[in-house]
Amino acid sequence: MNVNRASHRRYALALSVLVLLALQALPTAPAQAQQFERFGDIEAHYSAITTDFLPDEMARRLDIQRSPHQGLVSLSVRDADGQALNVATEGSVSVVGKPGETPLAFRTLREGDGISRYATFAIDTSAPMRFRLSLQLDRNASPEAVSFLKRFYRDQ
What we know:
Blueprint: H1 3-25, E1 36-39, E2 42-50, H2 56-62, E3 70-78, E4 88-95, E5 102-103, E6 107-111, E7 114-122, E8 129-136, E9 144-150
Antiparallel strand pairs: 1-2, 2-3, 3-7, 4-5, 4-8, 6-7, 8-9
């Protein structure tokens, strides 16, 4: 492996670690800093933020538009040993008090030993937004459900 390729791989790994940490650490309210659900010895960590919190370079890498009108929901699943799990994920988002749900199109970020799922959505500041996620932790069992509310505010 030449030096340029090795440098690029180290940079990509460092950026990926930063992305995973940033996606999990950016919720705005302190009480939401560690949002997770536990299913036996498996933990599913999730968050939802506005994409304008993402650094420019990270947004470019993930091909995400930075905007206070666009949100990012992220999910990472780990076993009891802290190993990242590759979990099929589906989900939707809705605005509390309004009819209809919008499906979330999850993408996967894999770097090194890390695996994270993320999806973007349009933000509605008129009411809290409800996220419903379905995680297939075991192909021989029913999916596990994660549901949470997040209120977004727009600076004026």
